[in-house]
Write a structure and sequence with these properties.
6 strands; Co-chaperonin GroES; 6-stranded antiparallel beta sheet
């Protein structure tokens, strides 16, 4: 991943959505049109609000239709409010 040139403001974060598998557990391939929107992602940048409890590289679970989609280079990202984050995924 190249250097990101976007700095979220306030209590917002920049997230790289993690794509879901394109194959089911039984081996069937899922077409692009049938895939659901991703609900997990990795935090790429955080805003300047002191209340933010996330940091870069945290894996998160977020609300299904939250955030604003943006394209940087060839990659898709979401800018979202921290309040849209449902949970931090612990490995």
């Amino acid at each position: 991943m190249s250097q990101i040139k976007v700095q979220p403001m306030g209590a917002r974060i920049l997230v790289k959505p993690l794509e879901q598998e394109n194959k089911t557990a039984t081996g069937l391939y899922i077409p692009e049109t049938a895939k659901e929107k991703p609900q997990t992602g990795v935090v790429v940048a955080v805003g300047d609000d002191e209340e933010i409890k996330l940091k870069v590289n945290d894996k998160i679970l977020f609300a299904k239709y939250s955030g604003t989609e943006i394209k940087l280079g060839n990659d898709d990202y979401l800018i979202m409010e921290c309040s849209d984050v449902l949970a931090k995924v612990l490995d």
